[in-house]
Design brief:
The chain has 402 residues and is α+β, with helices and mostly antiparallel strands. The protein is built from 14 helices and 13 strands.
């Protein structure tokens, strides 16, 4: 078996030197050191997998742990206690993970999302109408007027969270996911979110409604395992994951499509192509690597390498989605590309629970925005936009006009 070598270890996370590409070093690693050792922000060392086949092998192996409280877990931030919160599915192992995921899986099926599409369409149309009505106030920040409001309102209605409180959870989510936040800032933000949603869970107990949090409470009580702390953690995870990633993908996708008008013209001429375009945009940007970190519980053979029991690893989704062996010319945004097998939503038992919801929101937003504002254009060149250096890659502000 091969040793990862004695070359100087890279620091992880690796920086994106181009906003439209994953870290440039990933290409070299895939070719020369597909299983390499990197140094994390807390000073520990972990494996980094950069080839598509290795990433899927690792993420589908049951002899791994997602427990962020595990002493060997490869944390990309120093204070992993935030993400080890009770109720966080992404930090659970089986059989606990399987039990709690079953409680909520039915809420995010493809068929349920199809039933939700008319309401998503209404929300998108309302946002775009407000943008058009504010035409004299151009330019408009699409992040604040569309990218954040759409997924935030959808997840609020789904969970039963008052939408007027969105400034609270959006502010604290940004602190949690910003790599520049200090441990104290992140701890405070997380505590505030727990208090906010803990109070909401208590109110649902007293006055239940037909939203997801109330339905989950009923399911847990019927199963005899109701736990307010767990349900609160569950609510925090769903709220963060339900708006932050999709909001960033809306902004990034709009930017990429406006950057290549000929490709945009194809999907505006034939909206049935947009679903495929969404998959390519997800692959192309691959905005989240962090949930694909694990600890090996047994020795795992990965190609010519062995990840020993007790070693941590990060299976990079961004690197895997740009693997030339699977996606030829991966740096090109090819809206007709065969993208099956991309791992933008992770892979295996921890694959993103809300991926069907995200797909529906993205497809509806892109089709509606470019149909209703065909003259939409960026105010600044794409390369000059304020991109986020955060756990979830994105754009802080996206000024557009028409």
């Amino acid at each position: 078996m091969t040793d990862p070598g004695t070359s100087e270890k890279l620091s992880f996370p690796l920086p994106r030197t181009c906003p439209f590409s994953p870290p440039a070093e990933y290409a070299r690693l895939r070719s020369e050191e597909p299983m390499s050792h990197v140094v994390l922000q807390n000073g520990r060392t972990a494996w980094l997998a950069t080839r598509h086949e290795h990433v899927r092998t690792l993420l589908s192996n049951p002899a791994t742990s997602s427990n962020r409280a595990h002493p060997a877990f490869p944390a990309t931030v120093a204070d992993i206690g935030v993400f080890a919160q009770k109720g966080f599915l992404l930090s659970m192992d089986s059989p606990e993970h399987a039990l709690h995921r079953r409680m909520v899986t039915s809420e995010f099926t493809a068929s349920r999302m199809r039933r939700l599409r008319p309401r998503i369409q209404e929300i998108v149309d309302e946002c775009i109408t407000r943008i058009l009505d504010s035409g004299n106030s151009r330019p408009v920040d699409l992040v604040q007027e569309l990218s954040l409001p759409v997924p935030s309102l959808v997840i609020c209605e789904l969970l039963g969270v008052p939408y007027e409180t969105r400034d609270v959870f959006q502010k604290y989510t940004e602190v949690l996911l910003d790599r520049a936040s200090t441990p104290d800032e992140r701890k405070h933000a997380f505590g505030a979110l727990l208090t906010f949603l803990g109070d909401l869970v208590s109110s649902k107990d007293k006055e239940p409604d037909d939203a997801l949090l109330s339905r989950l409470a009923v399911k847990y009580r019927e199963a005899g395992i109701y736990d307010k702390e767990l349900l609160t953690g569950f609510a925090v995870l769903l709220l963060i994951a339900g708006h932050e990633t999709t909001a960033n993908m809306i902004s990034l996708g709009v930017t990429a499509l406006l950057r290549e008008p000929e490709k945009l013209a194809r999907i505006t001429a034939d909206p049935t192509l947009t679903a495929g375009a969404v998959e390519e945009l997800l692959r192309y940007f691959s905005i989240v690597d962090y949930p694909t970190a694990r600890v090996a519980l047994e020795d795992i053979e990965v190609g010519d390498f062995v990840v020993r029991a007790g070693e941590g690893f990060i299976a990079s989704a961004a690197a895997a989605n740009h693997d030339e062996r699977v996606f030829p010319d991966p740096g090109e945004l090819n809206l007709q590309r065969e993208t099956s097998g991309h791992v933008a939503f992770g892979f295996g038992v921890h694959a993103c629970l809300g991926q069907n919801l995200a797909r529906a929101e993205l497809e509806i937003v892109y089709n509606t925005l470019f149909r209703r504002i065909p003259e939409l254009r960026l105010v600044s060149p794409p390369e000059e936009l304020p991109f986020k250096d955060a756990t979830v890659f994105g754009i802080h502000r996206l000024e557009v006009t028409w």
